């Protein structure tokens, strides 16, 4: 039995050894596949620059002398964004609060503030300053009993919940019921009775939209529920001053507050790391509210016409992966205020029955609305026409007692003509065409504000008539207003309408002006202003009328008759043409000549990226540089672009690290270090401060330099199509113009510090539900005027060098494979110079984001961290594919050449690849474990060899041979599994061979030891 036990232990030792070795191999294989991502996670260096030249090659540097100074500034900017982005909705004089008061914070949100959102836009809450701290720092004494209630007491089990980054979980409010407030807690109200601040929280996140319809609570998610209303009632019963703060990411229904005795209401959005300091400055009067809403707040969040087509709808008969869902933008251009204000005007004009639409019961707070601690008066309004602009000027006087800023908003009304009706062109009653934010104006002082409105703002897209942009004949109105509704009333007043016509209040005709265009102009904007390229229809395949000629988008010519319904009741028997078109487009090999690769040009000699840092994108030298790259280098650069780009030795291109984070460079999804986290883009947009947006971008750039994170997957430019999109907090506004101006300013700031932006998600990714592969249908006018407008400004005004494609389809074609979007509009019309990266593409499930199709359409880089994924077979690496890879490589290299990844890299410098520390650690661990594995095996076999029988000696030899065979098998497995990957084969084939050799050597060694034992003890014989 003893001998049998020894044999079993020996066999077990061998098997465990083999298992450990195979496990190590698998671990090595996968870490090698995702090497770049692992390096990002551990913040590990993969290259170093050797530069013996004296030339200063730090092209982008910090504005601050040390890290502490920079950190202070970034924190101040975060606070400033909240200070200027928070919007005062109601105030009866309760705000600002006097200093040094004793106050009580109410609501579970006070202990669980919304600092950011979920997924890519999340915030590290460990670094965030809570409201208790900010208020106490401002001199207030905050009720500790209610704090304990939410932190540790009966209220601690109540917390709002949201969907995680993978779409799991649920959206729930979970406010603490008033029944959980103990007598001790209620008694504390008397000691901290100067004011109650009630916090209401809502958040969103990546991968799922907010829940529509009625929740189990009996209320909608974007509605104050019973527990919240009871909490406010309790506050009213116990405090003389009650302030409600909306720590929310989406517009919520606030009609219930009108029936409650609330003294002040303010929307504060999400707060970032230091936003609570900006908020406390507003509450105590050190600053005045100057933010304005970027969305319309309707009494009923479901009243937006887009809500009829929002959710998950199925294409019957489709079998294409991620191609079974669709969405129709039936509402057309009527998104947000463009619906609510237009239908209101039609009632006033008599084109719509007042019984069908009552603005005052529909809209609680219009787009652009916001109060201050003071009042402003406008005068001396004037509009001067120039060759290319309308120059709008107005005097703004502070007629109150508190210094503050004002936002001057300019809106335009275009004529809605018979030609428009005949050709299905829609016009909003007003659209934002310009704005400026004043300086701080002292009480009694004035500031003259001038807003320049380009004449290009007058163009409209005529899809079904001229197939290009036109300027209609008729009267155009330009008006200033405190918000969209105010401006419209001023236009209506100029047109001669009054309250007797159904206006809710009289407008001011002196704040509006009109200009006439005598004839329809179909030539001025038929060519791109940016490039001169001829503008024509590019999205006919995305128009639902292409498949259903009887379909009608929502039209102001017949509101009731065209009101949206859920298309095909949610289950669409789509025509075969559409289903067939979902298949990946086959790219024909049209390039006859073999592309030049891996060759140094005789005329120019060996070039490197640093030599071309200041060379224009159109210069042929870029093609000469790219021709130095081998096919393998081209392939690796284009395919493996997840959270960083690879280095290229032949052209001395540095590798980059790229990260998410619309609220600041974030480690949430990939690890490594965080940058500063700011209030999200919806709060930034609510500042209406272009200079602050640019400063925010610069702050991102500062972190980019400090963290050595060159690429920033932001800003996000999609539209708040409905109030329920899960990522509305990451996007600026329901309005494309405002989004574009703020986005362009952010891009300018970030790129000035060498951060590579990737404006996203391009395009029509305006919901999270089915964002992977969903087919979006909309008219060309809608696509261009609503959903591409923000992206266009970031390219034409800010020269963005990075774009991220969305994961949805436009019509039946994935956005990254849509030639009309990626080449004809983005590059040819807008003059874009840079790369387009896919959204997430690191898994096989994203097969519809085909490499060949995307490259042919104009996409450049795949957000993929798997070194093997998307690799084409040799026969698929056609001349056309290689040529497209060269174009893509040029786009990527050009953008990197303009980034801070070039810091330290002069024309004579050299990039040296280094093994990251984690790989060295893994190799050392591998070696140690191999040695440790062999020790017990060797000891077990040696013990067996001490036995004196031939049978046991033979058993020992057999076990040894089995072990050797298993070792060889492990080695052969490594070779077999990696034979199709040159990089993996080069790394693991030597390991496999080495393991086999070690086993063989060990066998020979043990045989020799056996013979030595025999010679020492001749009584042991071998028969």
UniProtKB/TrEMBL annotation:
> Which superkingdom heads the taxonomic lineage of this protein's source?
Bacteria
Q: Which is a GO BP term held by this UniProt record?
A: carbohydrate metabolic process
Q: Which parts of the chain span the membrane according to its record?
A: 7-30, 920-945, 957-976, 988-1009
All copies of the Fibronectin type III-like domain together span 406-484
What GO molecular-function term can you cite, just one? hydrolase activity, hydrolyzing O-glycosyl compounds
Instruction: Write out the entry's keywords from A to Z.
Output: Hydrolase, Membrane, Transmembrane, Transmembrane helix
Q: Which residues form the signal peptide?
A: none
Instruction: State the family named in the UniProt similarity comment for this chain.
Output: Belongs to the glycosyl hydrolase 3 family.
Query: Protein name, please?
Result: Beta-glucosidase
